[in-house]
Amino acid sequence: MKLLVIGSGGREHALAWRLSQSPRVHKVYVAPGNGGTDCAPTLENLPLQDIDALIEFARREKIAFTVVGPEAPLAAGIVDTFRAAGLRIFGPTRAAAQLESSKDYAKAFMVRHAIPTAAYGTFTDADEARAYIRAQGAPIVVKADGLAAGKGVVVAQDLDEALAAIDHMLGEHGAFGAAGARVVIEEFLDGEEASFIVMCDGQHVLPLATSQDHKRLLDGDAGPNTGGMGAYSPAPIVTPALHNRIMREIIQPTMQGMAHDGIPYTGFLYAGLMIGPGPDASRSLKVLEFNCRLGDPETQPIMLRVKSDFSETLEHALDGTLDQAEIDWDRRTAVGVVLAAAGYPDAPHKGDPITALAPDTDNCVTFHAGTTTDGGPLRTSGGRVLCVTALADSIRRAQQAAYDAVNQTQFEGRQFRRDIGWRALAAGKRHD
């Protein structure tokens, strides 16, 4: 069968790569794809982004089903439109995607359905927002309400930084346009973050492997927030007891709440969690954000660990039978290290030739994000360029394998963290 993956990032490369491993799959098209998917013999780029054109293609080529990677087409209603055309597609409807496309909607939803999250206020008036910040004090978190490509969150350590974020988002020349015309201001939560991603068919839920990403640009979680500089799976912090709590206290109430609101949730659901210190039974557990898609870069290590036929899992999700689905996971650890362009995240440089790539092996794959061939040699075309992802029988060995491959990968001005997986290593030392 033929499949279609919508998107152009590392998440979509990893998803398409995994689907192409299935003996049932003849071809995977990626729309619009990137330099890595363009070079892969089992994948084919499709230079289309218009929804009507994609529908016409899916009909003409008899695409068995489509999977949506990024948030923008979900917020634009691609799932609704494909379904109306009688085509099978995995993802949330436009209404359900509001859990990501509007932080104010998500916060109100969580409060309404007693899902634990940080205290917050929502503002469109800059003066009122500043007054709220002064009343609450710092540290404090300022978020653009809408989609801002992972750059609409400021974790302000002092009042000046928080007030500057309000000027940046709500000022006369708002940095995020309509996405920043409303801001959500949240209490600062301390603890350890984890990514908990599940598949949903409107009624049933199938959890994916746990993972943890690294949002800050620099080693030691310093520097500005980014879309993610690396990730690993599994995440030791999510013990079996904590896993059960997350399902019971967050995921199931979310599914039930969406159904209660008349918006059954289908697709991938990503809960970004803040986990407080202490024994598992008493740790504080709060939702930082919902994403209505797979995480990037979490997808890369997660997909590397999938051993079963992921196309079958997706068919169960489309048929409403996820309760009958299982995923066979590689018991080893996967670590993904992002190589970013010079100037990322503020002003990433594009067009630099990628002069060397580590060869892909069974246990180490380089997934592309911001790359292009454009009829010539491989070049950088975005902020996060590559995610070198390795699999090994311990976090330390997976980390070493990933960095060995990183050292074989070259382009001008590349940036990467040298400590991806440090929390898992620290957790291992605590239990030695």
Automatic annotation (TrEMBL):
<keyword id="KW-0658">Purine biosynthesis</keyword>
<dbReference type="Pfam" id="PF02843">
    <property type="entry name" value="GARS_C"/>
</dbReference>
<dbReference type="InterPro" id="IPR020560">
    <property type="entry name" value="PRibGlycinamide_synth_C-dom"/>
</dbReference>
<keyword id="KW-0436">Ligase</keyword>
<keyword id="KW-0547">Nucleotide-binding</keyword>
<dbReference type="Pfam" id="PF02844">
    <property type="entry name" value="GARS_N"/>
</dbReference>
<dbReference type="GO" id="GO:0004637">
    <property type="term" value="F:phosphoribosylamine-glycine ligase activity"/>
</dbReference>
<dbReference type="InterPro" id="IPR000115">
    <property type="entry name" value="PRibGlycinamide_synth"/>
</dbReference>
<comment type="similarity">
    <text>Belongs to the GARS family.</text>
</comment>
<dbReference type="Pfam" id="PF01071">
    <property type="entry name" value="GARS_A"/>
</dbReference>
<dbReference type="InterPro" id="IPR020559">
    <property type="entry name" value="PRibGlycinamide_synth_CS"/>
</dbReference>
<dbReference type="InterPro" id="IPR020562">
    <property type="entry name" value="PRibGlycinamide_synth_N"/>
</dbReference>
<dbReference type="InterPro" id="IPR037123">
    <property type="entry name" value="PRibGlycinamide_synth_C_sf"/>
</dbReference>
<dbReference type="InterPro" id="IPR016185">
    <property type="entry name" value="PreATP-grasp_dom_sf"/>
</dbReference>
<keyword id="KW-0067">ATP-binding</keyword>
<comment type="pathway">
    <text>Purine metabolism; IMP biosynthesis via de novo pathway; N(1)-(5-phospho-D-ribosyl)glycinamide from 5-phospho-alpha-D-ribose 1-diphosphate: step 2/2.</text>
</comment>
<dbReference type="InterPro" id="IPR020561">
    <property type="entry name" value="PRibGlycinamid_synth_ATP-grasp"/>
</dbReference>
<dbReference type="InterPro" id="IPR013815">
    <property type="entry name" value="ATP_grasp_subdomain_1"/>
</dbReference>
<protein>
    <recommendedName>
        <fullName>Phosphoribosylamine--glycine ligase</fullName>
        <ecNumber>6.3.4.13</ecNumber>
    </recommendedName>
</protein>
<dbReference type="InterPro" id="IPR011054">
    <property type="entry name" value="Rudment_hybrid_motif"/>
</dbReference>
<dbReference type="InterPro" id="IPR011761">
    <property type="entry name" value="ATP-grasp"/>
</dbReference>
<feature type="domain" description="ATP-grasp">
    <location>
        <begin position="107"/>
        <end position="319"/>
    </location>
</feature>
